[in-house]
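Hi team,

Below is the intake form for carnosine N-methyltransferase from Lipomyces starkeyi NRRL Y-11557. Please confirm the fields before the structure is written into the shared record.

FORM ID: S-0412
PROTEIN: carnosine N-methyltransferase
ORGANISM: Lipomyces starkeyi NRRL Y-11557
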Amino acid sequence: MAAPDAPVERHVHPEADEILEQRALTSTLNSLLVYGKAAHYNLTKPRLTALSRLSERHRDLLAPFYTDHLAAIDHAIDINAEFLKLVARYGANEFEAPQDLREWEGATSLQLDQTRSSIKQVYRDWSAEGAAERGVCYGRVIRELNNLYIPERRSEVRVLVPGAGLGRLAYDIACEGYVSQGNEFSYHMLILSNFLLNHTTSESQFTIYPFLHSFSHTSTATNQLRAIRIPDKCPATFHASPASNFSFTAGSFAEIYANIPDETDKWDVITTVFFLDTAHNVLEYIDVISQALKNSDGTGYWINFGPLLYHFEEEQNSSSAVAGTPSDVDKQDGISIELPLDYLISIVEKCGFVFEKLETGIKTTYAADERAMGNWVFDSVFWVARKTPSGFQASSLSS
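The structure came back. Fields below:
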C-alpha cells in the first residue's frame, strides 16, 4: 500500500482455500456494516430495558439524566457507524469482495468485538489525543532509527514494520525519509489502514467516539461521549516522503518473509512494536526476523518495543483460525510458546544478535482513555539488537 492511492500487496499461501479467504474478508466487512445495529442492541437497548424495570422512585432519581445520556450514546453510535460504513465500502471495492452483499459471510460476535476495539485503535494511531501514547513506543523507535542513520542516508535504508496495524508507525518512518514497508495480517487492520492511508483527504476530516462502549471507570458522562477528530496527519496532503518509499503487504509475516526469496537478506532494520507476543511460536518470529535482515556486514538492526501479553496463552489446545483474519494462518496454529523475558533475551542472543540497548519496565498503555478512572498499564521492554554476520542459519527455521 504505497501512500497515497496504491493497492495493498496481498500474499496468500498457495494452499489457502480461497473460499475461506473470502469468508474471512466478507465477515469482517459485515462487522463494520452492522456495527451500528449491534451497538444499539448491545449497549443502549438493555440499559433502557433495565431502567423500565426499576421502581418508580429509582426511575425518578435517574431521570432525565440517564435517558438523555443513552440518547446521546445512540447518536454517537450512529456517527461511528457512518464512518465504518464508508470504510467498509472502500474496503469491499479494493479487496474485491462480491458486489452482492447476500454472498457475504455474517459477522461473528468476536469480529464485532474487534470492530469496537478497532475504533479505539484509530484513536490511538491517528488522533492528536493519541500522540502521547504513540510517543512512548513509536517515538522511541524513530529516535533510535535517526540515531543510527544520518538524513542523507535514509533514502537507502529499508525498514520493515511487521504487525503494522493501522499503519501509523510505518507511515511516520517513511515521513522521516526511510524506505518503509508495513505488514499486517488482520483484515480489520488492513481495511481500516487502507482507508486512512489512501482515502482521507484532510486533517480532522472525520469524528469518532472511541470511549462510548464502556460504562465502567467513567468519571463523567462528557468524558465517555467526547468526540475525537481524525486523522491528525493526512497522508494525501503530506509530501515529505515520495509514495515509492512506503508500501504495505497483507498476509502472515512468517509466510511472506520466510518463504519469498526476494524478502530474505534484504532489510536494514526490522521494528516490532506490540508484536512479539502475537506469535504462536515466538522462536519462529525470531528466525524470520534474522533471515529477513541483511546478513553480510553486521549492520542489520532489530528494534523492539512491547509487553509479553501472549495472545494465544488461553488457546493452547485450540487449532481453529482466528476469526476475521486471512486463512494463511501461522503454520504452528494450535500451539503457544510463552517465554519469560530473561529466557527470550537469552534466545535472541543465541540466534546471533548483540544487544546494543536494552531497557525494561517502561510504563505503557495501549489505546487507553487517559481520562478514565482505570487503565491497563504494561511494563514494556525496549531493545536495539544488531545482527552479527552469519547470525542466521537456514537450518534453524521451523519446517
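SUMMARY LINE: The beta strands are 9-10, 158-162, 179-184, 206-208, 228-230, 246-250, 269-273, 300-306, 353-364, 378-387.

Thanks, M.
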